[in-house]
TrEMBL record, chain A:
It comes from the Bacteria. The chain crosses the membrane at residues 21-41, 61-82, 110-132. This is Uncharacterized protein. Keywords: Membrane, Transmembrane, Transmembrane helix.
TrEMBL record, chain B:
The keyword Membrane applies. The chain crosses the membrane at residues 52-77, 97-120, 132-154, 178-202, 214-236, 276-295, 304-323, 343-361, 368-393, 405-429, 441-462, 482-508, 597-614, 620-639, 671-694, 714-732, 744-765, 780-803, 823-848. Pathway: Energy metabolism; oxidative phosphorylation. Keywords: Cell membrane, Copper, Electron transport, Heme, Iron, Membrane, Metal-binding, Respiratory chain, Translocase, Transmembrane, Transmembrane helix, Transport. Belongs to the heme-copper respiratory oxidase family. Residues 672-846 form the Heme-copper oxidase subunit III family profile domain. It catalyses: 4 Fe(II)-[cytochrome c] + O2 + 8 H(+)(in) = 4 Fe(III)-[cytochrome c] + 2 H2O + 4 H(+)(out). The keyword Transmembrane helix applies. It is found in: Cell membrane. It is a multi-pass membrane protein. InterPro entries: Cyt_c_oxase-like_su1_dom, Cyt_c_oxase-like_su1_sf, Cyt_C_Oxase_1, Cyt_c_Oxase_su1_BS, Cyt_c_oxidase-like_su3, Cyt_c_oxidase_su1_bac, Cyt_c_oxidase_su3-like_sf, Cyt_c_oxidase_su3_a-hlx. This is cytochrome-c oxidase.
């Protein structure tokens, strides 16, 4: 007779949040989204309230400064993805090991890729802020 | 002390015993049997509902395709009068609407409902009755919207229903109401499916399938269902505003009364652009599943595809204004969206490169599914490149609303969505029917469609550049578009002929044809583990998965599953059972019992459909009657089919694994479903908040003077009462857990009048300030926020009384209290909504110096 062992249902919420496993996947793109929306709002409200032809000198620095801040935060996330999760930057990934470590490395790897994509997308958003001089 | 079982080293299975195997199979068969005859409509199993969903979507596709042929016939020659202008407007509107809302999105849900549980090695999705409810909503709503064309009252304002064309009664009639209400109803079914699929991927995976082992298809389903949750609700908010203006004259889009027609465009495209990716990603997911099979190796860059799916999902929400480049927004705003539109090409391209890399490093087997997949990539890349062109503001100013855009969008959608889907039809046909399609007809249909498509749509790039506007009813011979249009029309009919060949190939009766062999294509994913002939239970026993392509990498798997050596090989209690696992590592958490065949979901969907249809014709008394019917059927369904107290607290699941038979709080899929639904609800609410700030940004005098603002004192009292009502739900949960069922019931019921008093105070604040929603956009916005809160409180009251009744009838007890936990979660969202509304009505105007 097979031994009867009991399983402890551990619940989901604490594991998901404490290990950050799922959140780190969406953190970097969320930072992109926040930067994008704030840049859009700042410029839209600035132009709507001050009218056409207004100089964009001030919002420009808000957008660029915020961009630098966000990229800094993303670099922090990338470091976390590498150090804590063991994420690597490879093309032929074969992280198919069936273990918690394998799962962490996979999440870290994808999070790292998303950090690169999000940082690039933020740079894309900053460019028009730098180029256009007025509303 | 209990310990966790190590799934990689389970105790050995008991020796095979034929008599036991047959008895188990007989019991499983009885439990999972699909009703026959006319009772079949009560079926809720994913294999039945998925098939209906698929066939219904294709029926709407055929209908919309037929409309397209009529459009092309009208445009074949200059100065044609085959169709009247009014009918032509209805045809192109209905063509776009049906293709987008009745085909492209539902077909994703159809395919996912059909194959997702099998790819996950699960018996069904966690809420089978919800799937059935969603299907019936889709069917009823779709027939209502499409049927309107036969009465000459189909919507005629274009598939994006721009205001004021759609809001001014001089330019729009019943058709606009049919569009708004019919599609809101269908969006309900999309959101229902999204909830089902998200919980399915997160919680119904087979034991052992950790995040790094999830098949690509499931990643895509998760991402797309998440996108639906954030994209569809803003449109529901927009629908609400537009219908309030149409039915009751509220001032949202009328510039004379402080409204702004551009608000509709924002709300529509916040939905509409992500929708393009909601359509595209699931089809690309089909290619990502088919390709490894014919390449005979795992996908190159599995994680890069996950990256691009997640990346596209986010970036696609930053593109909506690129549909509005010509509306006169500041150039800086346009540039942000242009930049994001270029950025999204990066992750999209990564997926395509992964596919090409996989093809290059393997020796590809030739097959009809791969033919369609190859055609899809060719067409899609072409459409993607014109997409990069129209994402540039100056180019778009030239091409906007011309046939160039028509060509672009058909290249992306037909290449990115339709051809991969046809590849999927050929690939999974044997999985569904256990028969094979004709390869010869398959090749014929491909080449007819591929050739016909390019013949029809390639010339449109030139007609567009030559100045032909989209949606134009006819043109003059001097415009110089006649030859190109004739070519397009011929191409469209060739394309249609290809589809007819495909339809014949699919529907051809193959009663006497031999059954296919098991795992016909030698695929690696779990859906091909099904026995031939098919069994209704999905999997004989639920296996332990520790690889990405189990059928390739776990050699013994099929035999072990068939002999019932894995989990839940039996149905001793006569119940349909699934294993619920955790999100990260798919460790088994508990055995979920799901509902079997039922007419309740059908009744519920029918009543809800009647509500939307009757509201279109302003038959308010009947609307209310059917609304009550809807609530009645839904409560009956919940009462008899959810959170049932098990006959024993835990059961043997096999291989030494003992699992609980009841779960509550965040262990239960129901809790996650509430969480996900309410996230969607918050997104719709955010659509209203966006509207508020949009008016404030765009209109200099949106906020009225202090005298016209709702009274701060009453708003504060209202907020206090609403928060007190929320606290009663919290206290009720605690009291119930503490064993005091009576106090819990009293607290739940007491929360109802508190909520009513709270909303009453808010209503009084607005009323006494003399706010008239038909007068000004500020007044209408205040009232719609209060209305939003009121509708939610109504739902809250019904749920409180329901849970109190459950406690009274001992269906929700101090030990088994999932209902109470789910209600509390709902009230958290309600409290948040109340605080935000208070901030908008009381605090923001004060900050801006309005008071």
């Amino acid at each position: 007779m097979a031994p009867r062992r009991k399983i402890v249902p551990p619940g989901d919420a604490p594991r998901v949040i404490d290990q950050g496993s799922v959140w780190i996947l969406v953190a970097a793109p969320s930072i992109w989204a926040a930067h994008f929306l704030i840049s859009y709002w700042v410029a839209a409200i600035w132009c709507a309230k001050l009218g056409r032809g207004t100089s964009l000198a001030e919002p420009r620095w808000i957008i660029a400064g915020l961009g630098a801040l966000c990229i800094g935060a993303i670099i922090g996330l990338a470091v976390l993805a590498v150090r804590r999760y063991g994420g690597v930057f490879v093309i032929f990934e074969e992280i198919t090991e069936s273990s918690e470590r394998g799962r962490d490395r996979f999440v870290g790897h994808v999070a790292l890729l998303l950090c690169v994509l999000s940082a690039a997308a933020i740079l894309f958003t900053v460019i028009p802020g730098m180029v256009l001089g007025q509303c | 002390m209990t310990e966790e079982i190590d799934l990689s080293k389970p105790p050995p299975a008991e020796p095979y015993d034929r008599a036991r195997d047959e008895a188990q199979r007989a019991r499983l068969m009885k439990v999972w049997e699909t009703p026959t005859g006319w009772r079949r409509i009560s079926a809720v199993n994913n294999s039945s509902v998925g098939k209906w969903y698929l066939l219904t979507s294709f029926a709407f596709f055929t209908f919309a395709g037929f409309l397209a042929l009529l459009i092309r016939a009208q445009l074949a020659v200059p100065n044609n009068d085959l169709l009247s202008q009014s009918l032509y407007n209805q045809l192109f509107t209905l063509h776009g609407t049906a293709m987008m809302f009745l085909f492209a999105v539902p077909i994703f849900e159809a395919v996912a409902i059909l194959i997702l549980p099998e790819i996950l090695g699960a018996r069904d999705l966690p809420f089978p009755r919800l799937s059935a409810f969603g299907y019936w909503c889709f069917l009823i709503g779709g027939i209502f919207v499409c049927g309107s064309v036969f009465f000459g009252v189909a919507p005629d304002g274009g598939w994006f229903m721009y205001t004021p064309l759609s809001s001014d009664p001089d330019y729009s009639g019943l058709g606009a109401d049919i569009w708004l209400l019919g599609l809101s109803f269908i969006e309900v079914s999309s959101i229902a499916a999204a909830v089902e699929l998200i919980v399915g991927v997160l919680k119904s995976r087979p034991p052992g399938m950790r995040l790094n082992l999830i098949p690509l298809y499931c990643w895509y389903v998760l991402v797309v269902a998440g996108m639906i949750l954030f994209a569809f609700p803003p449109l529901i908010a927009g629908d609400l505003l537009l219908e309030m203006e149409r039915a009751f004259g509220w001032a949202f889009f009328d510039p004379d009364r402080g409204g702004d027609p551009l608000l509709w465009q924002h709300l529509f495209w916040i939905f509409g652009h992500p929708e393009v990716y909601i359509i595209f990603l699931p089809s690309i997911a089909l290619i990502a599943t088919i390709l490894p099979t014919f390449a005979g190796r795992p996908m190159v860059g599995h994680s890069w595809i996950v990256l691009s799916a997640v990346g596209v999902a986010f970036l696609s929400f930053g593109l909506w204004v690129h549909h509005m480049f010509t509306t006169g927004l500041p150039e800086i705003s346009l540039s942000f969206f242009s930049a994001a539109s270029e950025a999204v090409a990066v992750p999209t391209g990564i997926q395509i490169f992964c596919f090409i890399a996989t093809m290059l490093v393997s020796k590809l087997r030739r097959s009809v599914p791969m033919l369609f997949a190859g055609g899809a990539l060719a067409i899609f890349v072409f459409g993607g490149l014109t997409g990069v062109m129209v994402a540039l503001v100056p180019f778009d100013w030239q091409a906007h609303d011309s046939y160039f855009v028509v060509a672009h969008l058909h290249y992306t959608l037909i290449g990115g969505m339709l051809f991969p889907l046809f590849a999927g039809v050929h690939y999974w046909y044997p999985f569904v029917t256990q028969k094979r399609m004709s390869d010869r007809l398959g090749r014929w249909s491909f080449w007819l469609m591929f050739g016909g498509f390019n013949l029809a749509f390639l010339p449109m790039h030139w007609t567009g550049v030559m100045g032909m506007p989209r949606r134009v009813w006819t043109y003059d011979v001097t415009d110089g578009w006649a030859v190109l249009n004739m070519v397009s029309t011929i191409g469209a009919f060739v394309f249609a002929a290809g589809f007819v060949v495909l339809a014949v190939n699919v529907l051809w009766p193959r009663g006497k044809a031999p059954l296919v062999v098991r795992n016909l294509w030698n695929a690696g994913t779990m859906e091909w583990s099904g026995e031939v002939p098919d069994k209704p239970w999905g999997v004989r026993s639920i296996p332990y998965i520790h690889t990405r392509y189990p059928l390739w990498e776990q050699k013994e798997l099929l035999g072990e599953m068939d002999r019932g050596e894995w989990f839940l090989p039996d149905a001793e209690e006569g119940k349909r059972e699934l294993i619920i696992t955790d999100i990260l590592d798919a460790r088994p958490l508990y055995v979920q019992r799901v509902g079997g065949p039922s007419y309740l979901t059908l009744g519920s969907a029918f009543c809800l459909g009647a509500v939307f249809i009757l509201a279109t014709f302003h038959l308010w008394a009947l609307t209310l009657l059917f609304g009550a019917g809807f609530i009645g059927f839904t409560l009956w369904w919940l009462w008899t089919g959810t959170s049932e107290i098990p006959e024993k607290p835990e059961k043997m699941a096999g291989r030494g694994l003992v699992l609980p038979t009841y779960a509550q709080g965040n262990n239960s899929p129901g809790w996650w479903a509430v969480f996900i639904t309410m996230t969607g609800d918050m997104t719709a609410f955010m659509g209203l908040v966006f509207s508020y700030f949009f008016y404030w940004t765009a209109l200099p005098d949106f906020l009225p003077g202090a005298a016209k603002l709702p009274g701060f004192g009453w708003l504060l009292i209202g907020l206090a009462l609403l928060l007190a009502s929320w606290l009663t739900a919290l206290a009720a949960r605690e009291r119930l857990a503490g064993g005091s069922a009576g106090q819990a019931m009293a607290l739940l019921v007491a929360g109802v009048p508190l909520g009513a008093a709270g909303i009453g105070a808010w209503g009084w604040a607005a009323w006494s300030a003399g706010l008239d929603p038909t007068e000004a956009s500020f007044d209408a916005t205040v009232w719609v926020l209060i209305l939003w809160m009121g509708l939610h409180l109504l739902l809250d009251a019904v749920m409180r009384l329901y849970v109190a009744a459950r406690i009274w009838r001992k269906r929700c007890t101090p030990r088994y209290r999932a209902d109470s936990a789910n209600l509390t979660l709902f009230t958290h969202f309600l409290a948040l909504t109340a605080v935000v509304i208070f901030a908008l009505l009381a605090l923001f105007p004060m900050l801006m110096g309005g008071a």
